[in-house]
Amino acid sequence: MAKAAFVGFGEVNTPKELIVNKCAAALQALKNEGVETISVYPVTDDYEEKDVNAAIAALKGQEFDYLVVCIAGWIPTHAVVKITEHFREKPMVLWGLCGWMEDGRIVTTADQAGTTAIRKTFYDLGYTFKYVYDIIGLPTNSKKVAQFGTAAAAANKLRHAKAGMAGYRDMNLYGTQHDGPSLKRVVGTEIETFEMLDMEQRYQKITAEQKDAVIKNCMSKWNFLKEAKREGLEKAAGYYLAVKEICDERGYDAISLKDVDGMKKLLGFPPAPIFMLLADEEGLCTIPENDCLGSITQMMVKYTTGQAAPYLEFYEFFEDSVIAGVPDYVPAAVVEGDVTVMPAAFGELSEGILNVSKVKTGELTMCRLTTIDGKYYMHMVTGEGKTPPKWEEAGWTQPAPQLPGLQIFLQDVPAFAENVMCQHYIISYGDNTGVITDLCKILGIEILK
């Protein structure tokens, strides 16, 4: 839940009751959207600046995610800026209320005179803000104001979040790397690496009883198409507990493991069930192959939408759609029906527990954080995810498993392909471009479409 500091303004000569009533209605609408608030109103341009000073005193020392500058009538710019300058580091919403109809005529307190006088000033002062205005006869725009608050709260959380990486740069890929200082400066999130030896040493200390508890309490929820070897179940449970221990100790919000050149090559165990347990039992963002910016994108999507933010990777492009799936797992939150698994092997790799669940369909948002010449961008599109035709990745033990995936129909596949930034993209259900755009605006990240 976002927390807002709500400050309502109106000119000293406007009837006070009008300004108070308009601010009270706007504040209640914001509360109805689920926003926690601290409020000060009405603030006028009184000559002695008593209202301005009282507002500053009321907000100083308070914790909040963003500042809502609610303009309920004409207000000279200086009265607003004298308050906002004390909180210039906070994201802001410049919210202009509106007039009303009375006996067939429009009655106004000149709300938009106030906002249009202020908007350019906010821009010139370098504030991070969103401009929202209400219209007579239409519902108030409290939802947009609240949405910006969700983005502001997400930005605050990202500033101090941490992602863990067992190893780095799986398969020597280029597109999964990151630059630590610039990521810290722009997003704030820290990516920490830890050695697989740390995980292995902890794994060796996991008892048979601990593994058995995970198998009985967690993995028993899965629908096994074929019986898996006990050894594989125990390895999945043990490594899950080892990684969980690391995540708990270090406060990780997201996790990635060195997959092909690590878990599979060195330990002989594909990590799909480990990721499933970490995602479903611990609520962590999970992605394979040391995908650093993929992990950050997941946290950005999760904190703004509240969804699991799974990754998908591209397999085929068509004229109007793409097939995106995964060769390992999806979190239970995006599964249609039961979480379905089966033992399977790919090429020369050891047999693992593969997720073959059906993925939920529907409208979705697909995005990826990236850097171009040192600057951060978010590539984002919306599409319609549908059940794909039967398909397989060559190399699986026959009969090949039906991998989890979607056929995603896009408005312009060539335009998307022209800007595609990696094999991994993060999906969420519904059109979430608004709140993700708000988050990117707060962080200074440009949107690519």
Q: Which helices and strands appear, and what pairs or packs with what?
A:
Blueprint: E1 3-9, H1 16-32, E2 36-43, H2 50-59, E3 66-71, H3 77-84, E4 92-96, E5 100-102, E6 105-107, H4 111-124, E7 129-133, H5 142-159, E8 162-166, H6 180-186, E9 190-194, H7 196-204, H8 208-217, E10 223-224, H9 230-250, E11 254-257, H10 259-266, H11 272-282, E12 285-286, H12 292-305, E13 311-317, E14 321-325, E15 340-344, E16 352-355, E17 362-372, E18 375-386, E19 405-410, H13 413-419, E20 424-429, H14 433-443, E21 446-448
Helix pairs in contact: 2-3, 5-12, 5-14, 7-9, 8-9, 9-11
Number of helices: 14
Shape: elongated
What share of residues is helical? 25-40%
How far apart the termini lie comes to 29 Å
Neighbour order of strands in the largest sheet: 13-14-19-18-17-20
Strand content: 25-35%
Tell me the total number of β-strands: 21
Main sheet: strands, sense, barrel: 6 strands, antiparallel, barrel
**Low-pLDDT residue intervals, each spanning 5 or more residues:** none
What is the CA-atom radius of gyration, in angstroms? 26 Å
Structural class: alpha/beta
Overall mean pLDDT: 95
